[in-house]
Prior knowledge:
53% of the residues lie in helices and 19% in strands. By secondary structure, it is of the alpha+beta class. A hairpin with a 2-residue loop joins strand 7 and strand 8 (149-162). It is globular, with a radius of gyration of 25 Å.
Amino acid sequence: MIEVELKLECETSDLGLLVDDGTIMAADGWTRRQLRATYFDTAERRLAGEGFVLRVRSEDGRFVQTVKAASGPSTGLFARGEWEKPLNDERLSLTEDAGPLISLFGPDVLDRIRPLFTTDVTRQIARCDVDDARIEIAADHGTVLSGERRLPLCEIELELVEGEPAALLTLARRLAERCNVRLGVESKSDRGFRLIDHKLEGAIRAEPIRLSRDMAPNDAFATIAASCLRIYRLNESRFLAQGGVDHVHQARIALRRLRSAFWIFSPLLRSDATGTQLADDLRWLTAQWSDLRQIDVLLPRLDEGDRIRLTALRADAAASLRSVLDDRRARLLPLRLVEWLTVGDWRTDAAGSTSEAIALFAAERLDKLRRRIKRHSKGLAKLAPEDLHRLRKDGKKLRYASEFFVALYPGRKARTRMEDMLAALEDIQDLLGALNDESDAKALAERWDIAWTDVVRSPDWRRKKLSKARKAIARLLDTKRFWRAAD
């Protein structure tokens, strides 16, 4: 059995609106259930490491053991293998009829499986018809528990009973038009592992992307874009809850990586009007984070008086950003992206769905980025700030592309070359980033009434940075290309 569902994050008030307002959707009558589930794994997460979730759920004295399997982290739309087995009590029964675990793991793993955390959820369930599909709606409100630690849980699950997955996205957009819901990218087990790992507050960095050499280019793009979107949503949610500096920084990085993916795969997307509009919307969304990031960069360099005043301005900028993110345009954008990545016309375009090896496509795009850096870095010492900024963006694209595609080029030689190249790119980014921040400092100081002489460095400082950047670029161009290691 394959479970296909879409998750939405929301507040408790949105659940009430969903259940009480019959104009949102023509749903069957709602029923209420109380669900308690215990999740199991080994201490080192052997099951989770292989993409499996094992739980026992209790409801009204009935117990069901479930094994779920997925190919990797999901973004909004979850498609997972599912094996269920009724139990007499809450004790596990890992036998041949309980799914694939017993055939995949030996006694050394199965004997060490133990309970890790539980969820206690009040669920309200209804079914509705959308676009010739039957969908089950589950409105969940409850808690994830591990010992004395607790994590609130409030979400909506849309599960496909019959029909096409596109109907889930249609229904999600209808909900987002009326309720303050957002694309969900975490399962209940994801939340439980965060809880027991004490990872409830920190920013989330980019995850390794799993590509295979037999992928078509369009499938590779969908995988990369979904991963970037997942990291953005995780950091956006943490920013909305906590407002931290690192949340802002990592959310912007995730958006830049996503926009870079659009550029890298632009040969596949040129004729897709929806993709063009989404790229424009991503540019708009990235810009909404800029004011707050600029304040965060400038704050450590100020004296106490200006720092106190700018901290107050930061609070205003954070409130303004939250208002933008709560608005319909920002909330709908991730849902529109998931829909386009899943069922957009570009998916069947001949240029991207052919059997051309993704490794060849990737090598051509990496070569192009390397040539751009070589061309745009000529006469570095005399480049205007806007030209240095363009060069910096080229470096970011090459760095992100290398991280996207690294799995396509295995072997020690390729790995060594890549590490050397990324080290040079990191130096280039740091140096050009400092120069870019410096070019903005005077304008920012004037905007926020700060003495610009306190934040702008000397011409000698700039010359030294440019000299180091020139050496780092030379080192980059001297490094052999890891994507040509087999040549």
